[in-house]
Design goal:
The chain has helices at 13-30, 35-46, 50-56, 58-78, 80-99, 104-121, 123-133, 138-168, 170-192, 203-206, 223-226, 230-259, 264-291, 294-312, 322-348, 353-360, 364-382, 386-404, 423-428. Helices cover 75% and strands 0% of the residues. By secondary structure, it is mainly α.
Amino acid sequence: MPGPFPGPRDLNGRAARVTFACMAAQMAMGAVYLRGPLAPDVLAEFGWSRGDFMFAATPQTAVTALCSPLAGFLTQRYGARPVVTFGVVWLGLLFWGFSEMRSLWHFFGLSIGVGVLVASVGDVAVGAVVSKWVARGRGLALGIVYSGSNLGGFLAATFGAGVLAERLGWRHAYLFYGLGLAAVLLPIVATSVREPPAGYRPPSLSVGGAVESNASADIGIPLREALRTRSFWLLWSALFLFYVYFISVTAHLPLYLTDLGLSRPAVASSYGLMVGIGIAAKLGFGLIADRFPPKAAAVGCFAVVSAAAFTLLGLGAEPGLLLPFVLGHGIATMAQNVVYPLIVAHCFGTRYMAEIYGVIMLALFPGGIAGPVFAGYVHDWSDSYQQVFWIYALGTLVSLAMLAAVRRETAPDTPSEPGNGGRAQRRSAALP
């Protein structure tokens, strides 16, 4: 049963400023969505196959996954501000590079840079710092933060691809959108992203009174202990299957819709709606997660992911399914950013969350690479996505079952210190 809505008691003052600055940092990650709607133009100019194009994009996923633990380590040691500030500066330089792209190997190298960008301004650093500032209302705060990537993606698809590329060409779209967005975001991020001061406790914890497990105090088990728990590997495996589906479908969707006969403006608007709806989705799921247990919110989110995956299977035969798919896929896959850090904090606490979540994000490496490349080459061979979409839809059901099996691995009110012998106590207190 859901509890009473706790209200965003901690989301004010400096905490609110940090939250919205982290949302701005996530807009830099959303700029990466510009590549999807511009893919038909790029392929038309260079004559690359879809399989080769997706293969050349694989460094992004690999580098994002491999750099996520590093982002977690740097955030744990130096704070989130230098990590995300670097990412915003890198955005401008990177998109300038895309505007000068001349070969497939050039694209391959730039994809490495995209991976660095996503790891820098992605979920790990901003999620960890905001979780420290906000306890009661944490779901809403994370929803606000992660909606930034959708706002950036919506602007990239509608303004970058739908306006700049239409009028000036895809090269100038990369150049002007990347440099302009970086110039706007840099002062916001550099001046407002801050770690809490030493000894800080969110107001809802300082005044006493219980809070739900998704708004726990600064407790938790270290990474080496988390690696020995069942929940860690269930969360890792479920995220792997999610990325196989999400990254593959998101990468190929503009090409698939083009195959179905949609014009570039129609593809851009559909893609923009899919990304833009994530703003409302993340805020909505954030509010839901503040009222329901984190596990219930995560399972509900992944149930919608699976429903959208099966809707996609009928899109080729029934064009009327496009809107339901775009809405379902956009809502659920974008809300994943909110529910996953919440369930990680629920299972392991917040003290070592940056490091633990960073290692869980390694699931992006095999999942995000295998999915789009496999789909690209299967399409080149069979001239169809249908077989791949069936495999990925079934995978979403498996990931849903895995999330349903996770449990809390640390007692909600007992801080953990490495080597204090408290693991047995925490495990005995684990909740289903």
